[in-house]
């Protein structure tokens, strides 16, 4: 389970914050798809694309979507729009457009980006969850971790979510600390009870 991943049935101590945690999870899911598609674009479209200033911001705007969308259907249209935008930018900078074969491949990869089993999607999701865990740990050390290089395109958005996440976790701990102390106390007692007793040598 990731840093803010919630099961369908939440523990009692998370019920009051369930909606906010789920909202953050939806925001993170969207960022995961955005970064996955951006990586696909820059890895598949060739070196000419990486030199185009302003293209990344345009791509982020195009890729952003609403939760009410049918994402699978939206991605088919999105892939067409992205390929058209890339060709437009390439033409403006006197680069040749994407070949039909490359555009078809790119379109397929963009549509596959929403699949949680997609290897790039899984990698980005893992990096985001690790960043959030490190950010939570850093709140006790007064140092802010840098996101991995692949997440640079959404660093601002990711840090905004991380701040909300840390505040919510800390608030939850303050409210329910007596429950957590009791649970941890029971766990420690069980571990002590299960420790093997070493016999003293005569």
UniProtKB/TrEMBL annotation:
Superkingdom: Eukaryota
GO terms (BP aspect): signal transduction
Transmembrane helix among keywords: yes
Coiled-coil intervals: none
UniProt keyword list: Membrane, Transmembrane, Transmembrane helix
Record-linked InterPro entries: Tcp11 (IPR008862)
Spans traversing the lipid bilayer: 31-56
Family recorded in the similarity comment: Belongs to the TCP11 family.
Protein name: T-complex protein 11-like protein 1
Species this chain originates from: Geotrypetes seraphini
């Amino acid at each position: 389970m990731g840093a803010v991943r919630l099961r369908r049935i939440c523990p009692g101590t998370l019920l009051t914050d369930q909606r906010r945690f789920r909202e953050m999870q939806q925001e993170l899911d969207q960022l995961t798809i955005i970064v996955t598609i951006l990586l696909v674009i820059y890895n598949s479209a060739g070196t000419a694309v990486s030199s185009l200033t302003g293209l990344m911001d345009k791509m982020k705007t195009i890729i952003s979507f609403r939760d009410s969308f049918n994402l699978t259907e939206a991605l088919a249209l999105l892939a067409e729009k992205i390929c058209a935008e890339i060709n437009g930018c390439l033409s403006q900078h006197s680069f040749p457009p994407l070949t039909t074969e490359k555009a078809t491949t790119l379109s397929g990869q963009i549509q596959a980006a929403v699949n949680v089993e997609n290897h790039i999607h899984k990698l980005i999701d893992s990096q985001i969850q690790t960043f959030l865990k490190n950010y939570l740990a850093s709140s006790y050390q007064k140092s802010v971790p840098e996101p991995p290089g692949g997440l640079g395109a959404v660093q601002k958005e990711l840090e905004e979510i991380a701040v909300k996440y840390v505040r919510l976790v800390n608030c939850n701990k303050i409210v329910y600390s007596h429950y957590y102390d009791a649970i941890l106390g029971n766990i420690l007692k069980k571990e002590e009870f299960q420790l093997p007793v070493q016999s003293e040598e005569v």
